[in-house]
Amino acid sequence: MRLIFVLLLAVLQLVWLADACVHVRGADSSAVNMDDDPEPDALRMVDSQLEDNRRDQLYFSASTALPNKEKNETVLILARKALRYLIDNMPKSDLEVITADFLATITVNRIKKRLKRWPEVPWDVFVEFTLPYAALSEPRDKSLSKDFQNKLESHVDKYVTKDATLSQAAVVLNTKAYAITNPPIIFQAAAPNKVNAYSPYQVVQNKSSSCTGESVFLVYALRLAGIPARVAGVPHWNRGPQLCPLKDKSPKCGNHNWVEVFTEKGEWAFLDQNTANPLNKAWFVPELTNELKEGDRMHTIYAATWNIKTKLRFPLVFDPTYKEVSAVERTEWYQSNFHLPRTIAGDENFVAVAA
Length: 355
Description:
Layout lengths: L1 H24 L13 H27 L7 H16 L11 H18 L5 H7 L16 H12 L8 H11 L9 E2 L12 H7 L1 E2 L1 H14 L4 E6 L21 E7 L5 E4 L30 E3 L7 E2 L12 E4 L1 H7 E2 L13 E2 L1
Parallel strand pairs: 1-2
Antiparallel strand pairs: 3-4, 3-6, 4-5, 6-8, 7-8, 9-10
């Protein structure tokens, strides 16, 4: 049955290609306005169809592998549904890199953890922020290997108690997850608009990383614990000409990334990664976040999502050619919920308060 399905897809691809060639090449070239050449559109259509076929093939292979991973029918039904979303929203560049067996394995594992530990997490939040295997454009390297995933999952599970809430577990893991190495992983600044250790495997090997690598690592750790998480960040701070005379090229107006987690209150909160801070407390909020501008592409806050249908893309200043990280804008949320109170003239001793 599987062979017939694959052969049928191959035949459909050939038919589609032949049809496209007839429409593009069959016209009288002397009658075609070169400014309105249909070939680019036809090629894009063919490319899109081939991409869709590849997603279907990957889904078929992954769903076929599910019974080898799990016998519980409830888990299998949910896994098939989750796989469809996961694969339909995968970055195109991952389609030839990520295997069906890997997708089947992580889908079953994460659904079982949700059913056992976090059943209160809504389905749409789960498939978008717990299920995905990647956070940004980090290398799809040994971070996705069975050994590394099992090692990191076993490590974080030690610190998540049975009665902990999503918020409590996230705060604990914000320090304990980095203790997977000895000595623990530490912050190491990267050059402006650059990244050093990026993937979780690289971070563990180096025992250090910049804010981006630390954030990606924490998102992996939280998701393996069953906690919905995503990377948030700003391409450039907007700190004005005195601090940033070269504008975005000035070090003080570089990029920054951190982590957001979904809480038991049904809302998102942020973590200042690899610190002992509680939720919604960080060195850059609200002073720096209040200087940003909603809608200003390089000076606004983004949060990465797995939903490929979102219009926004996360501008990765350290990986500018990668355009496949979908995002939502978050500046308004930060500025609405965290602000600087009005002060008496001449009084500089003010503190940030949460709205």
